[in-house]
Amino acid sequence: MKSHYNDDNDKQMPELLKNMPQVNDHLDKNELFQRISQEMGKSKPLKQKKSHLLPILSTILTAVIILAIIPVLFNNTMFQSHEEQSSNNAADSKLAIEEYSSRMEEDSGQSDDGNPEFSLFGKKSEDLVLNEIDDQSDVVHAAVTDLQGQYVIPLSFIKQKTEKLTGYYNDLENYINNEKWGVSDFLFKGASFKIDYTNNLVMVNLPEGFSLNPGSANANVFQELLSNMFGQLGLNKVIFETIHNQGVNLGPIGIVKELPIRARQKSSYKVYQASPQKRKFLIPVPQTGQMDIEAAFDEMKQNEEAFNVFRTIPNDIRFDINKSGEQLAVTFSDGILTDTSITPQKKNTMIEAMLMTAKSYGYKSVKFNNAGIKKIGKYNLAKAIKVPLAVNPIMHEQ
Amino acid sequence: MKVVFERLYDSYHHELFQFIFYMVKNRQVAEDLVQEVYIKVLKSLDTFKGDSSEKTWIFSIARYTTIDYFRSQKRKRSRIAEFFDWHEKGDSLYDQSPLPDELTVKNEEMKLIYRNLDKCTIDQKSVLILRYIQSFSIQETADVLGFSLSKVKTTQHRGLKTLRKLLTENQEKEGDA
Predict the structure, then answer these.
(1) What is the pTM of this model?
(2) If both were cysteines, with which of A197, A274, B71, B135 could A278 make a disulfide (CB 3.0 to 4.6 Å apart)?
(3) CB of A30 within 8 Å of any CB in chain B?
């Protein structure tokens, strides 16, 4: 029997679709507005409570600082005093960050061989990945979300090995400058963390009254944030310590006492920037289904302007992929990277985003072939480049 | 805020609800997601740059919100599947969602299209809904989905082809029966 749905009848299927019924919302406009107002108001009480405390705390802190400084000034031993206090965790971490920043500047200075591609490395804010650290330091992984709570933004901090990791996690909220960066507030404000390496878990004590706003996205993002923060430490479970051990309400997931830490997801790395004045971040856009790395790279050419998420591979860039064990080879179409309409910064961001995407697919290094130029930024394209240690390093804050 | 909400509601609500409803095929879920979209829009209206039209910006937020919902459902199903081996059943359960009232009076062909839209990819389904049920132009569809014009045309072509194939298969099955 010949079907009447055949390719020769091009207009039939569109006509059928156009005749699909109009579907109306039965919910009243005013009721919808009330629900929205309620939801938008829900996240505010905790913040308001904190903002009332802020001036009081600031006053107390100022008084303490003045009392501490006056005797120091009189004795003219300010520098000694500073050294004596250097065992303090916060001071240690600041020192580590400053040392690291200055090392990065020195490194970029040494490798500047007159290639204009290097000139962009005077700007610390443009470093979107962390390639290496010295053996006296460790990486601390943190995460926030974009302003709409749609995507997780991983962050990495450097701490000295002598400094306690748990202490650093508990102080994280002080290092995250959400308003200046154009990201959401740190979700774990007021929370404390205890890491149990014996059982590969982290215990999280959430502040009283903590709850997630309802919505399909929030619970998933919550779990993703924790997975980004602790997954790379080899931990596999989060236990929530709550009063009377009643668990924490995670909206669609329900009330839970523990959550598994998810394995790293295969992702396409794109740039998030809330507005031109705000900081840029590389963010993983998780891939659905069995998308291979070619498709993940293709996805990196798409903007998602509604979320201030932007492509990291310019549309015109063409390349082939070859996979060989833990190394990925990307062979560009002839001379495509010599195109001067693509700024050095964009090329650099493309390399960093491709390296991070390759990392999420389990590759250890990437060899870029046929680029037409020897170096992009600090990356020597003559050799295979190791995938970065971490993304979005926060060097000096800020 | 109410004035802004009322303006958005009066301008886009019917189309917005209908788009999300056809994507998720569940009235309750569509209501929740529409609410989520309004919250996101109201929170970020200040940062809207005006590079695209307000309409396509709002629909792109709606599209990502529904995709995020699909992701969360997929994760939920795979968590359950770790305990029970009901992958097949899980899929068939999804297909059994009740028809909307508006469709129960329509003919079998319409109902088949409604059911089979889910068998297209999410991109194909989005393009078909926007282009034909919502009457968006190719440019508007491209803006909402972040596609090039040619990608919209290719996806539209493939989506129509998929639907045609599925309906033909169904027709043949009925012929055999």
Answers:
(1) 0.55
(2) A274
(3) no
**What architecture is domain B1-98?**
Orthogonal Bundle (1.10)
Token pair of A120 as six digits: 């962009």
Amino acid at residue number A391: V
Tally of helices (H runs) and strands (E runs) in chain B: 9, 0
Contact list, A6 vs chain B (CB under 8 Å) = 164, 168
CB A143 within 8 A of CB A390: no
| Interstrand relation of A255-256 and A281-286 (parallel, antiparallel or unpaired) | unpaired
Q: What is the pLDDT along chain A (398 residues), one digit of tens a residue?
A: 455 666 656 678 899 899 888 888 888 888 888 888 877 765 443 333 344 445 555 566 666 665 665 544 444 433 333 333 333 443 443 334 333 333 333 333 333 333 333 333 334 336 799 998 888 888 999 999 998 888 999 999 988 888 888 888 888 888 888 888 999 888 888 888 999 988 899 999 888 777 776 665 677 788 889 999 999 888 989 998 877 777 787 776 778 888 899 888 899 999 999 988 889 999 999 886 677 899 899 999 988 888 889 999 998 888 999 999 999 999 998 777 777 778 888 889 999 999 999 999 999 999 999 888 888 888 999 999 999 999 999 875 44
Q: At what angle do helices B87-95 and B54-83 cross, to 10 degrees?
A: 140
- Sorted by where each begins, the domain ranges of chain B are 1-98, 100-177
Pick the CATH number of B100-177 from 3.30.230.10, 1.10.10.10, 1.10.3810.10, 1.10.287.130: 1.10.10.10
* Nearest by CB: B2 against A17, A19, A33: A33
Task: Choose the closest CB to A17 out of B42, B71, B128.
Answer: B128
